[in-house]
């Protein structure tokens, strides 16, 4: 019996009809990770013993008390705090850090009865688009092990793409769920800013960060967002709004749906195959009753610069807490307190993190504050207004998730600006704060491409409905990497 | 086009409490110059009458009830401290 290719509903049916137990599913998941992960390198820490203990406890729960995700395995990105399970944000400065409390989303996963099997690799502090910025390991793309999985949630998307685990959590500050989801051919959702509590998420850029679900299909994604969404007193930026039934929104009906297609997202630098995959997807949606019109989001080209100024500024402030005193890495080369701080941080942070801390420090320093930081905040207003205006006339905005499919490991790591351009089509969404999903929509050669569906504030329901209609009308989500079947069961 | 010098990078690194060698400063100066030059694109836009956005949701002053709650136990809080003694965080000697 194999479990790794099943949906949540199929797994529940097997459990409820006594074809499988939670312990068996957990055990097989761990075995598959142990077999495949030496190739993929998605996991940083395994929670094997605790997961098996949790599973055996859950097997005793009465069937009627179990929700749709009860007993199912999940992996968690390493910037989300898990009590008793090492959490490093893939940074040396948090090597061996053992959280003393859970992130709110982790409490919610436990309340839903999910079994946490381990922690997933990422770019250090979520800064990067390739997973090459992890201090610990480079995660590989399951579709071709010479290619990056994307980032920063590359461990979360690679683990799902390889069939190591059916559910993971990632975080998305400028595309960090959607870009790797596109590169790995899986479904990744960045919810509306404030939809999910950030309490216990190691902060990168607080006004942009959002935790979201990664899965192999849209329905499971909706179920997982259901489990983690909601207002949290511990996060004063979480929104006190009603959480709808996301799975119930998958009605299959998009008749009369108005789709806006921003011409700026098909500009120079976007590959022909990425464009064609999206145009083909639009044809599918038109056939289902949607109308498609070209629109303009005129400030799109300013989003990248705006993002790097704001995100780096916020990061330089957030990361000032890492000083080696109360937790984390400590230098042993210091003759003064200043030396202690400076050496701890120089030895503890990687180059990309240092680059962004310095850029942020520069943008916030006196004499440059108005020219850089404040200017970027003003342009953010204009970018947000582009979306506000578009959503007056359209229900969703559709575009490619990334300009190109995944690139080779090592190909652009020394060229920060080219690396940053990977996120050019995902960044505006974070600046505006609206929700967006990436779903598989084709291939360039062997590598997957993603379709990005962007919704209005707190309207994840429409985003999911459109994604589900597309998924049901196409077979892209059923195609799996070669390595998928390579593992014996 | 703004020029980023090695000295400026050393100054910024100091503000950010990052030790940096001369060689690293030269390397970062080149990269940060390219990045800040790319950011100059924003100057094309007239933003004189535009309000800055610090936060995308219309929320202000989220307050909770002013009620004292117990913090975490000291033993728990000290769990990740590299060195501690008598419930205190131990740091290297910094005064002669």
Automatic annotation (TrEMBL), chain A:
SUPFAM superfamilies: Amidase signature (AS) enzymes
Enzyme Commission code: 6.3.5.7
Gene3D superfamilies: Amidase signature (AS) domain
InterPro entries linked to this entry: Amidase (IPR000120), Amidase_dom (IPR023631), AS_sf (IPR036928), GatA (IPR004412)
Presence of keyword Ubl conjugation: no
Pfam families for the chain: Amidase
Family annotation (HAMAP family): GatA (MF_00120)
Name assigned to this protein: Glutamyl-tRNA(Gln) amidotransferase subunit A
The organism of origin for this protein: Planomicrobium okeanokoites
Automatic annotation (TrEMBL), chain B:
First-level EC class: ligase
Pfam families (alphabetical): GatC
EC number: 6.3.5.-
Region forming the signal peptide: none
Catalytic activity: L-glutamyl-tRNA(Gln) + L-glutamine + ATP + H2O = L-glutaminyl-tRNA(Gln) + L-glutamate + ADP + phosphate + H(+); L-aspartyl-tRNA(Asn) + L-glutamine + ATP + H2O = L-asparaginyl-tRNA(Asn) + L-glutamate + ADP + phosphate + 2 H(+)
InterPro entries registered for this protein in UniProt: Asp/Glu-ADT_sf_sub_c, GatC
Keywords attached to this entry: ATP-binding, Ligase, Nucleotide-binding, Protein biosynthesis
Family: Belongs to the GatC family.
Function as written in the Swiss-Prot or TrEMBL entry: Allows the formation of correctly charged Asn-tRNA(Asn) or Gln-tRNA(Gln) through the transamidation of misacylated Asp-tRNA(Asn) or Glu-tRNA(Gln) in organisms which lack either or both of asparaginyl-tRNA or glutaminyl-tRNA synthetases. The reaction takes place in the presence of glutamine and ATP through an activated phospho-Asp-tRNA(Asn) or phospho-Glu-tRNA(Gln).
Quaternary structure, from the entry: Heterotrimer of A, B and C subunits.
Name used for this protein in its record: Aspartyl/glutamyl-tRNA(Asn/Gln) amidotransferase subunit C
